[in-house]
Design brief:
about 100 residues, four-stranded mixed beta sheet, RHF-like, 2 helices
Length: about 100
């Protein structure tokens, strides 16, 4: 499984590792032979914004593309929401 996240803003290496782990967990149910994920983690420099953290990912699963994103108050919360949304999309893809 090929997973890469780019970062923007004050995103830590531990947040990047957490995002990669979250994606692996969300994709654990798939038996696809080819999986690649590209994503971004962004933390806006203005903390007064209502949701300055953004997590986005595009997963290519055996040639089918799934895109998810989540905005939140913290990068950790955005990663959790991203995992939840990707899990739902993967289950839907496998069921359909």
């Amino acid at each position: 499984m090929d997973i890469h996240f780019l970062t923007s803003g004050a995103v830590t290496e531990s947040a990047r590792t957490a995002a990669e782990s979250a994606v692996r967990k969300a994709l654990a149910g798939t038996t696809a032979s080819a999986v690649a994920v590209r994503g971004t983690l962004t933390l806006a420099p203005d903390p007064s914004l209502p949701r300055p953290a953004l997590a986005q990912a595009t997963a290519d699963i055996d040639g089918r593309s799934l895109r998810v994103q989540a905005a939140a108050r913290t990068i950790e919360e955005a990663i959790t929401l991203l995992e939840d949304r990707l899990t739902i999309r993967v289950v839907s893809l496998l069921a359909g």
